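Consider the following assembly input.
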Amino acid sequence: MARYLVKRVLQMIPVLLIITLVVFLLVNVAGDPTVNMLPLDATEADRQALREALGLNRPLYVQYLDFLGDAVTGNFGESYRYNQPAVELALQRIPASVQLAGTALLLAIVLAIPLGILSAMFANSPLDLAVSGISVLGRAMPNFWVGILLILLFAVELNVLPVSGSGTPAHLVLPAVTLAIQAASQIIPLIRSNMLAIMHEDYIRTARSKGLREAGVVCIHAFKNALVPVVTVVALEIPSLIGGSLITETVFAWPGLGQFLIQAINNQDMSVVQVCILLIAVITLVANLLADIVYCLIDPRIRYS
Amino acid sequence: MEMQQQTQRKEVLLEVDHLNTYIKTEDRVLQPVRDVSFQVRKGELLGIVGESGCGKSMTSLSIMGLTPKNITVQANHLLLGGKELTKLSRRELREMRGKEMAMIFQEPLTSLNPLFTIGYQLTETIRLHNQVTKKQAWERAVEMLKHVEIPRPEHVMKEYPNALSGGMRQRVMIAIALANRPSLLIADEPTTALDVTIQAQILYLMKQLMKQYDTAIMLITHDLGVVAEVADYVLVMYAGQVVEEASVYDLFRRPLHPYTRGLMNSTIKVHQSEEKLDTIEGTVPSLADMPAGCRFNPRCPFATAACRDKEPPLAEVLPGRKVRCIRWNELGGEGHGEQ
């Protein structure tokens, strides 16, 4: 297990290197940051001076190696806009994002597991059709639209929840529900189809032949087997919820990483963009690693291979 | 084996009387098991033999109450130890499973849940039917593993199924099935998926435990060699019906039904002189397309117009021997004993 983990962590290094290269190049082709940094009436000479001061006139590979060296030491430069280290600014946004993502994911799992199981147990019943229908809708509707609908209903019409912002648990409800609807809609059909397939397995018949209650057969013997692919999807959802809920965070003015990234892109605050994207990449890699560890804990067959 | 024909048959444990199963499809009703009646006696091993698709497994699943949802089971009686299984509620029937009657299956590789330890799967059935602590259940489970001759039982308890071979897994299945000392064990092709050497070991183990636990066994197989090895009585099934019933000695000494003879002729014998192995022409008819008259008539070399005309009854033609063939007396003369 330890060896496997070390191997998995070492495998992350080349992936990270590639990501840094992509991030670096993307930001470099995005445009000239000096345009935004200087007043509109600045002369070409002023801009050139600034480029030289920032090292933007050097060859790309030199800039990249420089960027890499700084990245290793955790130095991504300062935000052009806030004149503070970009890393610090980005890290400050992580707790809010984790809070929102964690709540949404928890909500999604709590919703999806019983609904997925019930749908499978009563396959093709009205309940199943309703659940399947809702989950198709949930996947089809874009987040920002769901968010706006929820705001209209609960904040504007019913006036029971705040429109946007943060600070109280009430502020958390609408953005978390928005994200949870989408995540649950991904997980429900997965659990349903897994459970349907698993209920035909020989070991389910064995469990029944022992005299186990149907609930025990389903919730113990079948469910644990249905869980492995669900872990994959949940692991894929984590990074997209923490760093990827750009639009939802913007709609609800939630001060998380996603919203911060959008602002940085709009401001062409490139060092912040780089840090944010790298952070999201690292979160993705760590989430995948966690998923692999959870697989091992659930399924003994994976441990040995 | 010669002795068994003289011994009195024991008390009836399981009485199956006119068991029928129906599968509703979109346009018709199919009947995989038709009017099957037989008895399993205490401490006896009844072999049920026939090709695939003869309704053997469906018969056993019907007794266990484990048939798939789309199948309807009807019977005049399904009596196990005096209890009428057809009259039990779902819950009562469930409580019988694993306690009064247990089952092992053909595929030991897939019959155990891959994500739970052997210990969990074994103690689960013990704790389900007995008021015992976790520790007591664990000790009893280790004891069971010893009984099925698994080496290092304490170690195996903590293993997952994938760490065990097919033979070992089937031993675990037997341990699970016998953990609550059921009076009836249904074994559905328990050795088919195993290597030949392992097959013999498992059969021997079952036979041995059967005596030790005073359990009757209903052994379903397509292999007459297995039946000859371990069965006391034999039921030959064809196309959802019983076609012959006899003690194993009588059956091998003188098979009465042409199908039984066909099955025997198509097993390889040690002193076989011909190069070609005899086979039964054709295949088991599909449920949707049963021939009129005797269901075996299209494949029977001795079929006459009368066979195609009317379905023969299962009749007791000799003491303790039943056969579903109108020409048994003309054909069944020659011996086919293996021994």
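The first strand of chain B starts at residue 12 and ends at 24. Ask yourself how this observation constrains the way the partners meet.
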